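Private note to self, pasted from the team thread so I don't lose it. Backbone tokens:
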């Protein structure tokens, strides 16, 4: 896989009730991030948490709601 012209490595695993994606990319694998996908408690939206491991950064949380 390539991301922005650099080689990337992705590991995907299920950690009930989350789908976890661990991505290493960038120049000399200098960027590492973990993404966790889950359903909201009501089950009406998808929650995506992005944690920047290397370099350390503020975590992000995105909520995608299904259109009616």
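Design output:
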């Amino acid at each position: 896989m390539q991301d922005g012209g650099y080689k990337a490595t992705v590991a995907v695993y299920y950690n009930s009730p989350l789908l976890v994606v661990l991505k290493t990319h960038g120049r000399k694998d200098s960027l590492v991030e973990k993404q966790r996908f889950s359903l909201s408690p009501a089950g009406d939206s998808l929650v995506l948490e992005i944690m920047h491991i290397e370099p350390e950064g503020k975590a992000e949380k995105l909520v995608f709601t299904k259109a009616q």
